[in-house]
Write a structure and sequence with these properties.
The complex is a heterodimer of chains A (553) and B (283). Chain A is built from 19 helices and 21 strands. Chain B has 283 residues and is α/β, with parallel strands linked by helices. Chain B is built from 11 helices and 8 strands. In chain B, helix 1 crosses helix 7. The longest helix of chain B is centred in the first third of the chain and has 17 residues. The relative contact order of chain B is 0.13. The chains are: A alpha/beta (553), B alpha/beta (283). Strand 15 of chain A pairs parallel with strand 2 of chain B.
């Protein structure tokens, strides 16, 4: 097994995330699978930031604390991280790091002066220095700079080359034979998946960690043919989204916990009025403002139950960008087919982390188009259709259709009613859509299993934690059971996945075990729980230790 | 084919309610639109929640019976998704000025092309009589039995400050003028705001007061922002003053959807090529 980790650290505003992304691409073009985690406080300039890049000869989706190479852009990086990695190879910016116990100092300012290059190219010197220290062939550096440097690739390459020439190779990294893969963040994968599902409009108010989805779609709006709107608040976001969907535009909205709280009344409206909408919720550490730039999985119950009244909803919580892409496409199509709200529930780790994705290996989940009104007779928006209660869709503006959408209890025409029998009949109609959806989900991969698939001890998890669980399970010969769909809960697939399990250990990044209580509703008790709620994702190292502790009990 | 514009739904507004005037005014306008060859399939009425909002059940056209305070964002979404729609919002004063005030200001700021009719009876009727943002100081309602401790705000002044490009005030007992104002509002390209004074027969019957105070704006230059402000401030919805009715301000400016980047619909096959391009660019 080949793997290695690089930490790039500096001040907020130093371009750490970009530097990390370039290093990730270097590994990518050496044939490695890559994962990058960024750790940064909620401020624009000054605080300590770092990017952790992990490369391996197999898919990875989590980082360890162990670091092989340290790229220090400031003194604090050396002070904070060097003691943690006594055997790592170090390159440091000489101008910023005055005290360097060991490693190679890079005269960044002098290089910039010699090249008459602007300060913004300084990180390229550090990337060049790292590449040489790690024995990465210069052709790969050139290729990556030309492909991924937004501006002035040649100037940056000249700066990088000077540092590359100055530094000694310390620990060369072997080249692998794998192809370069797409490096995508979870949020980028959501954007691409929604586009593939036929998205017309994306509406959002900025909120970390969902904002990069807004930025990605706004930045690619023209290319993808998607309209992107940023309104006054999340209440407007979801209601604009619903108006947009009523007029026939496939629409998604995105936010994090606090913004989603503002959306809940609109969510319930979507449930009652049967308006399709995709809602992306990217979790951060709560409650309240919490830790804006850190992760958590404490909003599962919120998303499952938000909104007054009862109505069916789809909740999908994928674990990596490949799965995110598939389920974003699926969520959009299922929302439209069943005229329901559909959630993509992710977290900071997944939204902002970068992962290797092989686009050629992404299947299509094959979900059929929504049933549209055939134009015959008088249109009834809420016709209680025999097939799963799904009324044929006509959009406002459709010829010869009077479309009456209603948030009140209503009859099949969309006229308000308080008549007892009719109220119950229409509630049944909506509930039947949920049952129909449950049936369709039975043929989709709603539960992911991994590790040693017949092991009697299994880790139960959901979302991004699945990546660390997968590694630990492989290491310790355990099984992993990970529901991807959490509503309607895939109870049959879950029972199948649990066959032969004697001991079930839950792993979640929250303090109360929200999946634990959910599976309990379906008759499965957990034997142990491993919880983490400090805003940081599980590293495989830490998780392995905690699983071992539990196993020795 | 002309349609029967009134649904068979039983009307539950109180006798003498100002909502009847607005309903019939809209019905007449819709009838005329049809006569002019306009298809009512392209018209949508968006209502909030409150007595006024029952109009969604009573008019036989496309409607979205939304949530309290949320007509505007829904209407904005409809208009952006289908620019051919004529979008009319009917909202109450509780809707437009309390629960959904932020949306009202932003609709004016954006100059989104829709018509906002505020059924302003200056009281909550459906919840049986509480003060609203336009109730006068000291209003004794069920939630303020000893009288409100806050001034009303002046919605016309607020809309002038927020950038609305058509601002008018009507009165439900002046139906022909009301009809004219709403017609102008619908014809106006941009955000048209019409504050309609209506009496609440059950909880705040201002008929006598309005009858003795209203007058028609005549010889007023609707292009003059400064004069519009002066006229709008004449009555502050609180103290005794003449109440002008008519168009206060009118201005032609680009609308929200005109200013947004042009949206090019892309066929799904072509879009999938571009999705693949983005996957490729991430290599």
């Amino acid at each position: 097994m080949t793997e290695l980790s690089v930490l790039v650290g500096g001040r907020a505003g130093d371009g750490i995330s970009n530097a990390g992304a370039m290093i990730a691409q270097l590994f990518n073009h050496m044939g490695y699978f890559v994962y990058m985690y960024t750790d940064y406080p909620s401020l624009i300039r000054g605080g300590h930031n770092y990017a952790l890049v992990r490369a391996a000869d197999r898919p990875v989706g989590a980082c360890n604390n162990h670091v092989d190479y340290l790229v220090a852009l400031n003194q604090e990086t050396v002070a904070l991280h060097l003691p943690q990695c006594p055997d790592c190879t170090v390159v440091a910016n000489e101008d910023m790091v005055k005290s360097l116990p060991r490693g190679q100092a890079v005269p960044v300012n002098a290089i910039l002066k010699e090249e008459a290059a602007p300060p913004i190219t300084g990180n390229s010197a550090m990337i060049g220095a790292f590449a040489k220290a790690a024995g990465i062939p210069w052709e790969i550096v050139e290729k990556v700079f030309h492909r991924h440097m937004q501006k002035a690739a040649d100037e940056n390459l000249r700066v990088a080359k000077r540092a590359y020439t100055l530094v000694q190779t310390f620990r060369p990294i072997p080249l692998l034979s794998g192809p370069a893969r797409s490096l995508l963040s979870g949020n980028e994968a959501i954007g691409l998946g929604l586009a593939a599902g036929g998205l017309d409009t994306y509406i959002a108010y900025p909120m970390t960690p969902s904002s990069t989805l807004l930025h990605f779609l706004a930045g690619n709006a023209e290319q993808l043919g998607i309209r992107v709107i940023h309104p006054e608040n999340e209440i407007a976001v979801i209601l604009m989204g619903l108006g947009s969907a009523i007029a026939g535009a496939k629409t998604a909205v995105g936010t994090s916990g606090g913004g989603f709280c503002l959306m809940t009344e609109g969510l319930s409206f979507a449930g009652m009025a049967e308006i399709p909408i995709v809602i992306v919720v990217s979790q951060r550490t709560g409650p309240s403002t919490g830790l804006p730039t850190y992760t958590g999985q404490a909003d599962l119950r919120l998303v499952l139950h938000a909104g007054q009244g009862e109505f069916p909803r789809l909740v999908a919580a994928p674990a990596d960008p490949g799965e995110v892409y598939l389920w974003s496409t699926a969520a959009l199509r299922l929302a439209w087919k069943y005229q329901i709200p559909a959630f993509i529930l992710v977290d900071k780790t997944l939204s902002e982390g970068s992962y290797s994705v092989d686009p050629d290996r992404l299947p299509d989940l094959q979900i059929s188009e929504p049933a549209l009104w055939d134009g015959q007779g008088t249109y009834r928006r809420y016709l209680d259709a025999p097939k799963g209660g799904i009324s044929p869709l006509a959009f406002t503006g459709r010829k010869n259709a009077t479309v009456k959408i209603n948030s009140y209890a209503h009859d099949e025409d969309g006229i308000t009613t308080e008549e007892a029998a009719l109220v119950a009949k229409m509630a049944d109609k909506r509930a039947r859509k949920g049952e129909e959806l449950r049936e369709e989900l039975n043929r989709l991969p709603c539960i992911s299993t991994g590790g040693k698939k017949d092991a009697p001890v299994a880790l139960l998890c959901w979302g991004s934690v699945g990546n660390a669980c997968g590694e630990v399970a492989t290491d310790l010969d355990l099984r992993v059971i990970r529901p991807v769909v959490l509503s309607p809960f895939p109870d049959r697939q879950f029972a199948d996945a649990c066959a032969g399990v004697e001991r079930l250990i839950a792993v979640e990044e929250n303090a109360t075990g929200q999946l634990v209580s959910l599976v309990k509703e379906y008759g499965r008790n957990l034997d142990d729980t491993i919880l983490k709620y400090d805003g940081r994702p599980f590293s495989p190292e830490e998780l392995k230790r905690r699983v071992q502790e539990v196993l020795t009990l | 084919m002309t349609r029967n514009l009134i649904t068979p739904v039983q009307n539950t507004w109180c006798p003498g309610c100002g909502n009847f005037s607005i309903q019939h005014t809209l019905k007449d306008i819709l009838t005329d639109m049809e006569k002019e060859g306009r298809s009512l399939d392209d018209v949508v009425l968006v209502s909030g929640i409150g007595c006024h909002a029952k109009i969604a059940d009573y008019l036989n056209i496309n409607t979205v019976y939304t949530l309290h305070g949320r007509t505007i964002p829904v209407a904005t979404g409809l208009k952006l998704a289908n620019p051919d729609l004529t979008v009319i919002c009917c909202a109450g004063d509780g809707d437009a000025y309390a629960e959904g005030l932020d949306h009202l200001i932003f609709a004016a700021k954006r100059n989104i092309d829709l018509t906002m009719i505020v059924h302003n009876n200056r009281v909550y009727g459906l919840t049986t009589g509480q003060y609203t943002p336009t109730s006068p100081l000291g209003f004794k309602g069920k939630s303020t039995p000893s009288g409100t401790a806050e001034y009303p705000f002046n919605p016309l002044e607020l809309m002038l400050a927020s950038g609305a490009t058509y601002i008018a005030r009507g009165y439900t007992r002046k139906m022909s003028q009301l009809g004219q104002l709403i017609r102008q509002g619908i014809a106006h390209k941009g955000f048209a705001f019409i504050d309609v004074l209506q009496i609440c027969a059950s909880f705040f019957n201002m008929t006598e007061y309005y009858q003795s105070h209203v007058y028609d704006l005549a010889g007023h230059d609707t292009r003059d922002f400064g004069k519009a402000c002066t006229r709008a401030r004449e009555w502050d919805y609180n103290l005794d003053a003449p109440i002008a009715l008519g168009t206060f301000y009118e201005q032609v400016l680009p609308t929200f959807d005109e200013r947004l980047p042009v949206w090019h619909h892309i066929l799904q096959d072509e879009r999938m090529n571009r999705v693949r391009d983005l996957f490729e660019a991430a290599k």
